[in-house]
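BUG: 3D viewer hangs when loading the predicted structure for this chain

Environment: internal workstation, default settings.
Expected: structure renders.
Actual: progress bar stalls at 90%.

Input used:
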Amino acid sequence: MKRIISLIVLSLALVSSCKNESKKELRKAMNKEVVYSISELKNQRNNWQKRTKSEMEAMFKIEILDNEALNIIDPNTKINILADGFTWTEGPVYIKNGDYLLFSDIPNNKVYKLNKKLDTVTYLYPSGLSGTDFTGSEPGSNGLLVNTEGQLILMQHGNRAVAKMNASMSIPKADYEFLVDNYQGKKLNSPNDGNFDGQGNLYFTDPPYGLPNGLEDEGKELDFQGVYCLLRTGELMLLDKDLKYPNGLCLSPDGKKLFVAVSDVENAAYYVYDIESPGKVKNKKVFYNVDYILAKEGYHGLPDGLKITKSGYVLATGPKGLLIFNMEGKLLARVHTGQLTANCALGKDEKTLYMTAHGFILSMDLI
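Structure tokens produced before the viewer hung:
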């Protein structure tokens, strides 16, 4: 789940020479940074909205790289535009009891509800910043999830906290209880994405994207960006403090592995850990590195949101859209969306995949 306001546009060496260059030489070729403001993002959104639906759909493509992908996706599957008009969509979660989708629009500090009739309404406002003392551009909620008690949990940028909504899902109210907002007395950065295990322990990431000035923000109290587990007992366990930009996070269906996306242009990769016990991990290793894609194709997004199907396929937003892997880390397919794609969510019976892509909500059928 990447920071939306500061997007790094990579200027790389010629494609023909990229394969033979060392990583150090490739990094030397990254020589341009462009910072986009909210108004510029809105202009981009407006330009996309000027396109006809057929023009938008012409940008969509499913690329099968291995026949194993046919176990989860049909290459002729249509990618649908369900809703648009937002600034930056994130954190989608499908709500089975009601058959609807919730998602964040971070700059607008809102959570929206998209029902089965494709009607979109404001579900929560504010969603991530309860007060007014915030000077950044990303005050809202990011990741959304539901705990074992059926309560909505929000990763809140502006409040710098993991929060629970103190209201029923059917009658939402912007009334929040902080589950955790600090580590050893120091404020969290900006909780980003999370996943509950079968026992109700919450794993989550805490990059700096929600801070007004990111890593250089004067209000940043921690000198690292953590991956954590909030145990049911209330104890907060630090799992990893050595990832520069930890982002999307997901657990394997059996709860034995933890996957973390890292949105770092110096090391754009997805990592996997063995879960030894709740709040304890070991054997950290790279699941898949996408540096070669950036070198070949330029900047079109970084590793971000993650979901894993019950059948063991990893769905990961990243360069140019969505990547599909098996559990061994083999890239099986790519879904090209035509815009920066932040996250995804599995729908009813895992037959639908929802994607948050810039100012859009997209969907496609799965097998």
